């Protein structure tokens, strides 16, 4: 219903276009970090996978996917794809949607 | 009528304050909703829950608005939640009573958009923020759910523990235009 | 007097009286401070930064480099305001700056004699070089700095608090038009007429005619451009007023989010640098225009010095106002017919192919020296001729004001005909259009046409229509300037200043180039050129021309420095705006007023205001908390636990969810029971603890520590959104929904028996960790038998709006048992005695083992943190672990002290750990503490020392088990 807002070109932003709330100031968002890792299954004994998950963060110059929580709004975790060098934002979607895809 | 003690205590002082020489810019009040709550749908049950939201909002004096994806805020008379509870399937969603946990402050008057613009980075223009809609936002550490009743009237729902501090911020912002506490 | 008013009565304007440097001056409404001072005969308005040379007003508006003043409001000082911008008002008090003892006599001017000493890089070379000799050490620099900082500088900030208030406001629009000149107003009108939401920001006072449908912000300076077309501006709401209306801010900070912007920021005239160019009376030609607009014109003859035609129009206008034009000195070899016609109009002799090579007069100009000048080579020749004049109007051409465009764009483009930089294209993601003279389109009609064109583009873009872009109108050739930026004197010539504010001369720039600071960015930092309030508006282009000239490069090749916000001075007050005094809001519990009325001293815990002690007359803090803690152990106490984080957890998968986030099992918890839970972070360290209550089959109430409530909620949100999106669980913060009162002590059950209706509270009905629902004072309550104090205790929860009534009823029911309210200090004491952990021990570095909570780590199910918690470093026996400490000397131990083996500290020793919390224990009648100590268990029963070298404390202590009081927990199970 509100999904179409997120598909608008977001541009370089001091504002992030939340798929539910629309464009909001950066101050409403909490930076959570890299969203390209997947947590191993709980109970997994794969130590290397756990170490990598907990401590290794890719830190690219350029296009990157990150989790931001819209803490001062709908509280949803968002998957924000943006350019770390220019701040250009390419897409913003609910993290829940990608997480659900991944678990299927 | 609600028997809840107001969090504003003695800091709620009726009267006219600030620059009232050229009239009253905004009126501030603490409306007493008998029920405040949130109704939320699990994935795939949005339509079913929305039906319940519409039923609840159809009651006299009730308002509802989405505050997050699949989550609605409800405000109305005491007992507003009864018909919802009766029809709500646990596998569809959840209802949570926040009647004590949130405080409503009402702000209305010709300068309402001006005063609110000092507090929130939200576009309060009528085309951007239509009558009968609401949203969630933040004034510094104060999380707020805002509902627009009409062109000049907004309800601000804040956490009860922050209400008194926020009350002072709102009054300070309104001093310039003159305000009346009613 | 060198200036006078055309009409001394001010044409019906009201006179305005103000104080400048202690003297009463009368101006007229609409005057700038500079205009009023010049009209009253005050030519010197400031002393220069390094050499303390007398300086007068030079440029209109914010470009003014010399006439900086301090305004006084009560005891509050606002320094470094441009006299050319300040609007006078009745009763205003202004002071000149950087002079001692007065403007006209300044002992600092002796610096001028030592000019060689203070050339570019002087400070670095003299004081920061290698330490050879007494004059070249850092120590000497530190000493000298104090004096240099006092002698060199601009205004002085005061110490008095600012009496004014400031405001911040958010705005949204389709088009933000910046600049209220012809171009700006035209663009704003066009965009408004096309149905767009327009804000017009104009740095000047209102023009009197509003644009219907647009929001016009007058006296509003846009100074910053940020990502996504976000603009920052300052509105001077009441700077020009003698008094404030109630609640009226002095200034307002605007944050404007525009879909697009039109920059109609205009252009500023720039000087030609020549020897002796800083004598008061040498001003930009446009400054004469600004003064004439206000009815202030020069008394004596004016000499014009120009490299372009535009100055001729200014000369003609000035002559029309009644001024005498002594001569027009033009550096070019050819002058257009129209310029000649204008010169004839003002009866001015034109000196073609000539330049000003010096000035006569120290604090007032008497004459200028004129010589032959070859614009192609820059060579000066021939006999100097003296031209008598009392002022010089200089014009080196016009530079578009591209500061904002540069902030939001790429590199500015050099225009050879204009001898100026044109605005850059917007950077990716930014959207703006520059029009009028800001885009190099001069002339009123041309600028208006250009503004209509810019508005047309903006409208088409925003409405998604096809663009039909008309070609840009031709530039107005009168503004084309010859490439003459500096008249280079001989060795004997006077100083030629490029940056008046920082006293940077042409010679300084050459020195910088000679020493290898060849990039403009390096030269700027080495000489400090363009780094004061005028931000290079006057100095940038001459400086680039000189720098490039030294290296045989053109200005286009040399390039320019990048502009950054703010484009003009901004007060700290307006940036802080409403965030004054207490910066954070206060969170108050439902019983807040009761606490205050009953003698509580409050303590800020995060945002919460919590009772620390309920002190009685004559009690020390220690006496108060010891009395309160003893009451809990001996009788009964009551404590406000409303601040505990509370999260409502509902949904079919709630129990499954809790099993994953807690280390211990919750799916087997019976309805109507609570359980203590421990949460780990992904890396295996402890995150938080608390009790969670099973209210219904799929309904839980989780409590968190007060401090971590927000963090835990965010963590749980993350788990549901990003890790396990298929779990049907909803979370809601209900911290504020519930008022909580902990009733603890041997008589706690008796208190509840006295007031609870509709439920039994005996040991069978409410066993340890049992939950029961009933009413107190007719209000519904939920009671859980939990104990943090180690006594028989209950937490009584009611709706927050009923909290005070329930609290009152509990106090009434407890009266026969002398129920005692207790605060955080007593709570801390009780938990230290029991060895219960809080945030002081859960400090982000401790594991469950460190805190002896390994019994809570389930082996039957996986949970967050499990995979990482048993890594070798996490289970090392030498890790810091929790112990108790008893002071054997009878003296108090302080929190944060380190623990060492040495009985005396003569030199630094290895720390064995640190004290996390300390108190006097009424139960043990000793000073005790909790501590994290290396291999703590193995040290139990040994003696160590707590040391705090800063306070000189060094005390023997016995290390004991952390459960210091009632280790079997008998008291809470009765």
Number of helices of chain C: 23
Beginning-to-end CA distance, first to last residue of chain A: 23 Å
Helix content of chain A: 10-25%
Q: Report the average pLDDT across residues of chain A.
A: 85
**What structural class do helix, strand and pairing data of chain C support?**
alpha+beta
Helix content range of the residues of chain C, please?
10-25%
The quaternary organization reads as heterotrimer
Give the low-pLDDT segments of chain C.
Answer: none
Overall number of strands of chain A: 7
Beta-strand residue percentage of chain C: 25-35%
| Element string of chain A (H = helix, E = strand) | HEEEEHEEEH
Largest sheet of chain C: 7 strands, mixed
Q: How many separate helices of chain A?
A: 3
Walk me through the structure:
The complex is a heterotrimer of chains A (104), B (182) and C (974). Chain A is of the alpha+beta class and 104 residues long. Chain A contains three helices and seven strands; from the N terminus they run αββββαβββα. In chain A, the strands form two sheets. A five-stranded antiparallel sheet of chain A has the order 1-7-6-5-4. Residues 1-12 of chain A have low confidence and may be disordered. Chain B has 182 residues and is of the alpha+beta class. Chain C is α+β, with helices and mostly antiparallel strands and 974 residues long. Chain C is elongated. Classes of the chains: A alpha+beta (104), B alpha+beta (182), C alpha+beta (974). Chains B and C meet through strand 6, helix 3 and helix 4 of B and strand 9, strand 38 and helix 20 of C.
